[in-house]
Please model this.
Amino acid sequence: MALRQYYSNVVGEPGLFELHWEKSVLPAYGFIFHMNDGIAVFGTGMFRKDQQRLKANIQERLTTFMTQNPFARDALRKAQAISPVAGHPYRDDAELVKPYADNLMLVGDAAGTGHPMTGEGIGPAMVSAELAARYAVEALQKGDVSESGLAGYGLAFHKQFDSLHKISQLARNALTFPWVVDRTVRRCAKDPVFGAAMAGILAGMVSPGEMLKPGMALRLLAG
Model:
């Protein structure tokens, strides 16, 4: 689940995307996406399992983030809201989805491709769409768009997303504990290699499995 609200006259660098984990907002995370002309979107994301497990209210977390986080407060000091608070449920269960049937292929949110760790959706949706297009062309050339004719897409889809989602869910669960967040952030500040890997994970360009490698695990423990 994600909530967001747009503001004008926001203080911040255009194009800067901020992610914030802090104790008062966990198990949600806060985000600020600075656009051009002082427009920015402020929001919080929270996953359903965390919400149910900890009985957390995402609307309260958004209010807390915007009023208590010092970076958000500073960015909002001259700002005015230009939209209502809006939100939508977010699927991240690609490993459980059958993304094909007779004359049908699912991609993006419909197929649960949202990144389980950050909620990022556009990149994974484009990846799934590219896979679907490749297998759709093949099926059309063969004249077979039945369920069996599209099964290759299902295999490629799960090869692409299953391991990433399972590892990301483990990482996401770990980041609901404040001491894990604190140690991770401290290590990012001290260790450029570790920090670059974490930035890549949050951007969806590096698999969270990178952190399970012995070298990276030792770097984190050294924090």
